[in-house]
Design goal:
Blueprint: E1 3-6, H1 12-18, E2 23-26, H2 31-46, E3 52-55, E4 59-60, H3 65-75, E5 79-87, E6 93-95, E7 98-100, E8 106-108, E9 115-117, E10 125-128, H4 130-133, H5 147-157, E11 161-172, H6 182-198
Parallel strand pairs: 1-2, 5-11
Antiparallel strand pairs: 3-10, 4-11, 5-6, 5-10, 7-8, 9-11
Length: 206
């Protein structure tokens, strides 16, 4: 595990150091840019050749979640980005992946089997195949909101599928701070739609 600390003031870096966990200190502000810094650290310093899991600090995982998700990459070689089912603390399902509409809006996908191919999964908890994280970059123009949509559509444009499953469940204590940033979400929605006209795949659900 490598911890990417986004300018926290709660002693996170000292906590990680005490436990021998590598910690990258990042400048605050742009989530996508910071994720790319973490990926570059992996690629240039450690040269790992394994899936990478991105997840937020408000996600609680089960003890065997990593092993179970990695099995998907063995069984589903066409999948480049994968995510578990996310539930709220109440146990209510948040989503099992998402579909995207022509206007850039989205809705949770319906699970009709163990696994479902989706348009995108959220970065609250996603696992990325090494062939993807080595070739797809987090776009700093999407510092927050639509960075996950853009990333998944880039992976799809390279021939990978994006998939979600209910075989693994994580609890997402969703932040409320993003509700105050609706204007940023709308700006990024329009930016993504402009990009998509020329460079992104169409949604499989439109």
């Amino acid at each position: 595990m490598i911890l990417a600390d986004d300018s926290s003031t709660d002693g996170t870096q000292a906590w990680a150091k005490e436990r021998g966990i590598p910690c990258i200190a990042l400048a605050g502000g742009n989530v996508s840019a910071n994720r790319q810094v973490a990926v570059e650290f992996l690629r240039d310093s450690l040269r790992w050749d394994a899936p990478i899991a991105f997840f937020d600090n408000d996600v609680v995982v089960s003890p065997d979640w990593w092993e179970r998700l990695q099995r998907v990459f063995v069984e589903e070689p066409q999948v480049g980005v994968f995510a578990p089912r996310k539930v709220y603390a109440s146990g209510e399902t948040q989503n099992v992946g998402n579909r995207l509409f022509l206007n850039g809006g989205s809705a949770p996908c319906k699970l009709e089997g163990r696994r479902v191919v989706v348009d995108y999964v959220e970065t609250a908890c996603m696992v990325v195949r090494p062939e993807v994280w080595r070739s797809v970059r987090w776009d700093a123009r999407f510092p927050l909101f639509y960075e996950d949509v853009d990333y998944c559509f880039q992976a799809r444009s390279k021939g990978f599928e994006v998939m979600a499953t209910a075989e693994v469940t994580v609890v997402h204590h969703a932040h409320t701070t993003s509700k105050a940033r609706s204007s940023e979400s709308e700006r990024n929605r329009m930016r993504f739609l402009e990009d998509r006209k020329s460079t992104r795949l169409n949604s499989s659900h439109t």
